[in-house]
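Now for a sample.
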Amino acid sequence: MAHQDDLDNHANRCNPNNDEYWNSRGEEKPEDDNNSQYDDDDE
């Protein structure tokens, strides 16, 4: 099953939504600011 593990690892490293994508590039995943539009502070 090592072949499937290799495929999964490759997919994770190519997916910017996956932490391993950022780890493999020596970076940290940026904070997701997309939810800021739903903040209730503006009311």
